[in-house]
Amino acid sequence: MKLFYTLTILGGLVICSAAQAENATRDDFKQYASATLGRWSGDVTSVISEQNLGVKGDTYQGRWESEMIQDNQAIVFRFTGPESTSQSVCYFDAASKKIRVNEVSSKGFTNQHEIYPEGDQWIRHTRFTSPDGTVSNLRSVITHSKDGDTITVLINGKVGDRVVDNQKNVWHREKNSSADELTIHSYFQGLWQIDTDENGKKSTEFGRCIGSTGDCNIWFGKHTTSIHGYDPKTETWQGVLYSDDGSRMERVIKTAKDTKIVAGTKLTFSDKIYHPDGRITHSTVQFTCLGPNRFHEATTQKDKDGKVLTSFEMVAKRLKPAGK
After folding, report:
1. Of 125, 141, 144, 293, which is most buried, counting CB atoms within 10 Å of its CB?
2. pLDDT 10s per residue in the chain (324 long)?
3. Is 144 in the same domain as 284?
């Protein structure tokens, strides 16, 4: 009897451990979202929302894009292929501890996905429902490349009587053009009130940002003027700012993977300031979008030898949109 209880307890531990291994957390959802945001394309034979899933034949180019919605609590995916389109919503289900996706295609196919991490990969279980009511179950292994520009999906399971055996779909991130980048950074266009707090010393100033030919943003402040544009070689949004005290600042902004700047979007600005007296200041600015008309910046500074200088924070509020 004692042996029976011991085995029962051990068996329970094994079941519990397996269940925990298939769980996801809200941080996992954030990581998954970050890795999938943007626009993607690939040459595939079929996707998981189509009737011909698993059928070997000619490839076609499919495209999909994703963006955060509902204050970063969900992701919306939009797929476009030659025969159909689909849309889906992805979110974290705290009750089941799973990343869930609900998908519907223009042909009437629906999918319910459950996703959880397993090592460096993601496991996706799919309940695939055809328009005639036939239900199939699929298991996919999703892998993201280290550079974040490739997603590989291996699909296994059955669709009706047809076996899907290691169907491989490879998706590549589409790079933004300068026009795309201007669309993203057009968020900054308009008339702004900027409230700065530097160790308790508060100040307020105003500035205007406009879009310009060449897919650029131009900023006019009380003491500064700057121009920013996209550098396709480094895939960053770069700019140069001139101040009335004679200093010049070079700024590099890591390109956002989001298709637009929304509440919760975070960017890092790397600045290098050349002063008239020969000093050089290195600044790191952490930008956080607070909504459609407000953002926050926290700036830390060091001199060229690494000595920590004054840090400060600012909150900007849009007073008028661009063109008003």
Report:
1. 144
2. 444 333 333 344 433 334 445 899 999 999 999 889 888 998 877 776 666 665 566 678 889 988 888 888 999 999 998 888 999 999 999 999 999 999 999 999 999 999 999 999 999 999 999 999 989 899 999 999 998 889 999 999 988 777 888 888 899 988 777 777 888 889 999 999 999 999 899 999 999 999 988 889 999 999 999 999 988 888 789 999 999 999 999 999 876 555 578 888 888 999 999 999 999 999 999 999 999 999 999 999 999 999 999 999 999 999 998 866
3. no
191 and 285 share one domain:
yes
Domain assignment present for 303: yes
Would you say 289 and 309 are in contact if contact means Cβ atoms under 8 Å apart? no
* Length of the chain as a residue count: 324
pTM score, two decimals? 0.59
- For residue 103, give both structure tokens: 């998908």
For residue 311, count other CB atoms closer than 10 A to its CB: 14
User: Contact, 185 vs 178, CB < 8 A?
Assistant: no
Domain count, the chain: 2
Unique residue bearing structure tokens 């941080």: 27
Q: Which helix (H) or strand (E) holds 147?
A: none
CB neighbour burial string for 88-102, b if at least 16 within 10 angstroms, e if fewer: bebbbeeeebbbbbe
**Cα–Cα distance, 217 to 238 (Å, whole number):** 10
Q: Which two tokens stand for residue 50?
A: 């189509």
Using CA atoms, how far residue 125 sits from 104, 240, 267, 283, in Å, is: 16, 49, 33, 45
Q: Helix, strand or coil for residue 215?
A: coil
To which residue do tokens 């519990």 refer?
A: 16
Task: Note whether 195 and 160 are same-domain residues.
Answer: no
